[in-house]
Amino acid sequence: MQALLPAHASDLTDADLDELYAWPGWPNPQPWLRVNMVSSIDGAGYAPDGKSESISSAADRRIFGRLRGLADVVLAGAGTVRAEGYRPAQAKASFVDRRAAAGQTVVPAIAIISNSLILDIDAPLFTDAQVQTIVITSAASDPDRRAQVAKRAQVIVAGEQGVDLPAALAALHTQGLTRVHSEGGPRLLADFVAADVLDELQLTITPVLAGGSYANKPYVPRILDGALLADAPRGLRLHHLLEEDGSLFASYRRVVIEG
Question: pLDDT confidence of 257, banded at 50, 70, 90?
């Protein structure tokens, strides 16, 4: 893997990647929402099987692992958790000392945003997690279902009719979970952008084309899908760009307007 920007460097080690992807202010960073997504060249967020993993690559999975290892909490929508078969984070020897020095738990917590609370609480994500899984919902969710989920997870109520994303992030921050790493999916990412809470987008562009549609699936979702962005197009700043085997790994950050 090589860095193309801001300066060229070849044969990046895991330590190099950890420095490139270090959170602003590490090891005591400010609250920060980073989203990691993968897409085809033409912007599709999924393969025909409905999984982003199927348009990924070994290099993408390598970066994915480094990003998770640096985070306090991994945040995803319930649909993505179900589709991708989420499991609890596993401790990795290469992160033990770094996480301990930063005052982090041995693995990042997994947090799920769900208004319906349609979750399999008997799955390993809830029964085998080294750090208790978090479920963020709204006051409108079914109270009986909330009580059931609370037997296996920490439940955070943020918002009345739907999950209030700024309130959800603030609730995580109050627990010291300031390095928030989200893995989507496309609807959650669109909601983040619409709520203007996105600080950084990590985008992998895989050298494949999805085309206008998939067989028996006339609609191919992009990496943002859903909520209206009233001030579109909104600019981001390129922070760094990496490459391996034709895949590009771009880091974009929000544009800060001074004054």
Answer: low
